[in-house]
Design a protein that fits this description.
The protein is of the alpha/beta class and 290 residues long. The chain has twelve helices and eleven strands. It folds into two domains: 2-135 and 274-289, Rossmann fold; 151-272, Glycogen Phosphorylase B (Rossmann fold, 3-Layer(aba) Sandwich), CATH 3.40.50.2000. Helices cover 41% and strands 17% of the residues.
């Protein structure tokens, strides 16, 4: 079984494709990563596309996985699909579900989505669309229980869109951190009493799974499909509006035992959403499709 995974790979942990590639390898698959953006920077987009086609023709891959791969022309995707089985992995929220990606759905054999509302849109184009949770990297996202809390309320990410207005409405001081990846992320979560999350287009980001996997207490707005996986008040806490958000921050800062109990249960629940499970699910779908 030979797989070509076309994506973005790095050594910092910023790109999820790196840990996803490792998950396939841990499962014993013969998988090769093709860094399509880096190749385009090195030789140019059109030579990259020809190199990609040649790589696939010369190596007899059983499965090609595109990690979205915006920028690779759909004409190339169409040519590749004549050679072997293809899968589109689409992890982004609805705002990134562009006409380019919608057209690509009709060119691949099957597609997997991390966001329920994007999946619902995609199913109008193709029946071979499936939900696969991106989850978290179990190789790096782990609890650091030996670290003391240094921060009451924290948010890891960029405060774009309405996030900044929500942060401004919080009465407690919030520590905002950017560009925190790899092992630095779970360490920061472990040092924060309340970890905030703001959903985009009603979709769950991997921040949710990373916080829970680090045994962090998660306070988030709600997202489509959440109730199928996590229980409000048991695995995490959901807020309705900024008034409710402030009330819950104040409550859980003063109830340490209850806050830790929720964090502990969230840690147990999220273990079903590792990148290993993500890779296994894609291969189960592949076996059905082929």
């Amino acid at each position: 079984m030979k797989i070509l995974f076309i994506g973005v790979f790095d050594r910092t942990g910023k790109s999820t494709n790196t840990s996803q590639l490792l998950a396939f390898k841990k499962l014993g698959y013969n998988i090769v990563g093709y860094p399509y953006r880096q190749k385009a920077q090195q030789v140019g987009p059109q030579p990259r596309d020809q190199d990609l086609l040649k790589t696939i023709k010369d190596n007899n891959f059983d499965l090609i996985i595109y990690s979205k791969c915006n920028g690779i022309p759909n004409e190339i995707v169409k040519e590749i699909n004549k050679i072997t089985t293809t899968c589109l992995w689409f992890m982004d929220p609805l705002v990134s579900y562009t006409p380019e990606m919608q057209e690509r759905l009709g060119l691949v054999d099957f597609a997997c989505f991390d966001k329920i509302n994007v999946l619902e849109k995609a199913k109008k184009i193709s029946d071979n669309c499936f939900y696969v949770c991106e989850g978290f990297d179990s190789f790096t996202e782990k609890p650091y229980k030996d670290l003391e809390h240094k921060c009451d309320v924290g948010f890891v990410g960029n405060p774009y869109g309405n996030r900044q207005s929500i942060l401004n409405a919080i009465s407690q001081e919030v520590t905002v951190s950017n560009n925190i990846f790899g092992f630095a992320h779970p360490r920061l979560v472990s040092q924060t009493k309340i970890n905030l999350n703001f959903c985009t287009d009603q979709g769950a980001s991997d921040r949710i799974y990373k916080i829970l996997a680090a045994n962090g207490f998660l306070l988030s707005d709600d997202w489509i499909g959440r109730e199928e996986h996590f229980v409000d008040g048991k695995d995490l806490v959901i807020y309705r509006d900024t008034e409710d958000l402030n009330q819950k921050i104040e409550y859980y800062l003063s109830h340490d035992i209850e806050r830790q109990q929720i964090a502990d249960q969230g840690y147990e629940t999220v273990q079903q959403f590792t990148r290993i499970n993500w890779a296994q699910k894609i291969m189960e779908i592949y076996e059905q499709i082929k």
